[in-house]
Amino acid sequence: MKHKHLYLLLLISILPFLTSCDLSTGNNQTEFSSKKDQIRETFLDSLMQEMTLEEKIGQTVLFSAGWNVTGPTLDENYIIYLRDGMLGAIFNMHSAKGSKEFQKIAVEETRLGIPLLFGYDVIHGHKTIFPISLGEAASWDMEMIEKASRIAAEEASSTGINWTFAPMVDIARDPRWGRVSEGAGEDVYLGVQVAKARVQGFQGNDLSKYNTILACAKHYAAYGAPIAGRDYNTVDMSERELRTTYLPPFKAAVDAGVSTFMTAFNELNGVPASGNKFLLTDILREEWGFEGFVVTDYTSINEMIPHGFSKDEKQAGEQAINAGVDMDMQGGIFLRNLETLLAEGKVSEKRINDAARSILDMKYQLGLFEDPYRYIDTQREKETLSKPKYLEAARDMARKSMVLLKNDNQLLPLSKNKKIALIGPLAKDDREIIGSWAAQGDRTGTAISVFEGIDDLLGSDKNIIYAKGCEINDDDQSNFKQAVLAAKQADVVVMVMGESHQMSGEAASRTNLDLPGVQKELIAEIKKTGKPLVIILMNGRPLTLEYENKVADAILEAWWSGTMGGAAIADLLYGEYNPSGKLPITFPRNVGQIPIYYNAKNTGRPYNPVLPHNTYWSRYLDVDNSPLYPFGYGLSYTSFEYTDLILNKQEYSFDEDINIRVTLSNTGKYDGEEVVQLYVQDLVGNVTRPLKELKGFEKVYLKSSESQLVSFTINSDDLAFYNLDMSFKAEAGEFKVFVGTNSDDVLESKFILK
Ligand code: NOJ
After folding, report:
1. Which of 618, 505, 574 is nearest to 177 (CA)?
2. In this structure, is the dihedral angle defined by the CA atoms of residues 139, 144, 150 and 156, taken in order, positive or negative?
3. Burial category of 143 from C-beta neighbours within 10 Å (exposed 0-12, middle 13-18, buried 19 and up)
4. Pocket of ligand 1 contains residue 437 by CB under 6 Å
């Protein structure tokens, strides 16, 4: 068996160290880690020495098994490459049985028996689907987000997957872009926390464990800022904006030990990300010290030709590998061109060696050389998928992710004896609810619909009158009548409205962010009945909801909430859980306001509605400047009051801690959780500074009538920014501090940094 040879290599690498250190007990931890690193290096050195150029190039090749289609299909027979030892990894395969078959070929039939990596888009759960990533971010609960990624890794790894193409850490401020659904929203600080939590969740503390998998920070970089929100479109931005807003979550992923990076599809300032040396080498490896490997996005090297950056595939390959790409996803460019490029002196042997070695290194860290079948265990797969405790966690995450946008006259929570008319295209849905990029999530009816969730909670459907009313996205109004009839018979109407899962996500940009089809028209008809109206939204992005906000008494943003979504929604509707989610992204009033985000600059002519003469100010003639719902916004069934914002001093030196305290009181009649948010404004800078920047938050649980002192500590490092000369440091001067319930509704104080 070929793999025996690798064992031998492994053994030879360990031998010299066996005498000098007790590897098993690790008495001296530092010495132990350094020996382990030396063993790894020795093994990789010996393996690299044995490999032919072709085999090294083979490691840089990744093809899809085609079980799922996540991009343009290519006519590549990857099995031939696999047998020839010309394949480093496979993606889009997701069963222990399937991966075993392929791993066996790699291990037993190729010359050196080097095992494969198996990649997959495990984004918000694998089989047990959690809320979409944007929804998870709305929980502002890092422990829970880490746990959700941990469970996703547990499930995925039991099916043979050892590499996820997640987390997506792209900051996104344009809800026309469908992929806002896959990230953590618009804010840098929140994005950084979420990136760390997700990497930690997927990778755990030891990659060689059977249930931890490689994470992949994507899409590097600035993919979330395409012009006009059209997917894959051009990105052009200053280096200051890039470093201030778009890079920090990627850097945070590196600091959290992320193993791989994925390049973006877009060009950045004229250079496609997959050929961008500035991003991939200068910043990622040299500045940040990233030691994993870089994979491209799907055929994105090939796409440098239509970008107008490469004249042919060969040049594209040369530009990509020299920029710092290590693995080519689905394009076959490295496979077909690296050898020639080396012969022509356009690519160095060292560069090819570095790429191959960085991939082998990750295989080593996963423990695949020790046991190539570590992640492949049909029994574990059976026992692991959809465990009840995972489903419970998914329900919990879903509850935490939902944001109460409106609740006039405390219409919610509903009392159980009310007769409800449950209306809308998503009221009985159990397919759309798991959202886009739902990995192995089931679209055949196993997810809990809202109807089912309510039925379960009430113990019967006798208080539910159901009517679909209309489809998600067509113009048929023929079922309106029946829905109106249902509404008339009920005490309260609950409408479940939104997008289909294909309407947000990759290649799903929209220019109209209203509820699609005739859903608004249906709402209008139902409104005429005069019944109290609750709207539940299932969608992947901020929608424009001015009309709904006007006519509904209560609105709950439930996102696509996953396998247990319907149960979680029922929990919130009937007060089994008190909503605590806060928007991780601004909801605009209309599309014309986009991009609209809370940490904008002031301009030289900031609009002030209080001033009498309002002509020459930065504003729209036809709509207010403010969003419909600001960043950080979200209501609770209880009410919270903020008082006594106090700083321990008024002036601070650069090395002093700044202590900020506020009293939070639960003044309502329900127990509940509040996300206390801390923002700062640097009033004057050598480059202009945003109106507000999130610098901290804390999720606090308070019983009704309870109060708590909440404190934050920041220092001058937290006030640093990219100065005129691009140095990253804080500047002396005056600052405002804000603490409150969302980015708009805050208490204010100030301090001086000297
Ligand atoms: C294209 C997407 O942009 C990326 O996010 C995904 O990981 C790959 N396809 C693989 O499916």
Report:
1. 505
2. negative
3. exposed
4. no
Encode pLDDT of 418-451 as tens digits. 999 999 999 999 999 999 999 999 999 899 999 9
According to CATH, where is 3.40.50.1700 located in the chain?
Answer: 402-593
Sequence-distant (≥ 6) Cβ neighbours of residue 75 within 8 angstroms: none
CATH number of 402-593: 3.40.50.1700
Answer for the pair 645, 678: CB distance below 8 angstroms, yes or no.
no
Dihedral of alpha carbons 239, 244, 246, 248, sign: positive
Q: List, in sequence order, every residue forming a beta bridge with 535; answer none if it has no partner.
A: 495, 555
Is residue 649 within 8 A of residue 751, CB to CB? The reply is yes
Among 141, 170, 174, 297, which one carries the catalytic annotation?
Answer: 297
Residue nearest to atom 4 of ligand 1 (CA): 297
Q: pLDDT band for 74, please (50, 70, 90 cuts).
A: low
CA distance 555 to 472: 18
Q: Per residue in 167-223, pLDDT tens?
A: 999 999 999 999 999 999 999 999 999 999 999 999 999 999 999 999 999 999 999
Among candidates 550, 565, 536, 531, which has minimal Cα distance to 418?
531
Using most ligand atoms within 8 A of CB, pick from 93, 121, 260, 437 the residue to mutate for ligand 1: 121
CA of 63 to the centre of ligand 1 (A): 12
Q: The tokens of 536 are what?
A: 């539940």
Catalytic residue check, 297 = yes
pLDDT of 1? 47
CATH 2.60.40.10 positions along the chain are: 640-753
DSSP letter, residue 105: I
Is pTM beyond 0.90 here? yes
Tell me the per-residue pLDDT of 280-304, one tens digit each, with 9 for 90 and over.
Answer: 999 999 999 999 999 999 999 999 9
Crossing angle, helix 142-158 and helix 188-203, to 10 degrees?
A: 40
**324 vs 372: CA distance, rounded Å:** 27
Match domain 640-753 to its CATH number in 1.20.82.10, 3.30.1450.10, 3.40.50.970, 2.60.40.10. 2.60.40.10
The mean pLDDT of the chain is 95
Could you tell me the two tokens for 106? 């790699």
The residue type found at 262 is: M
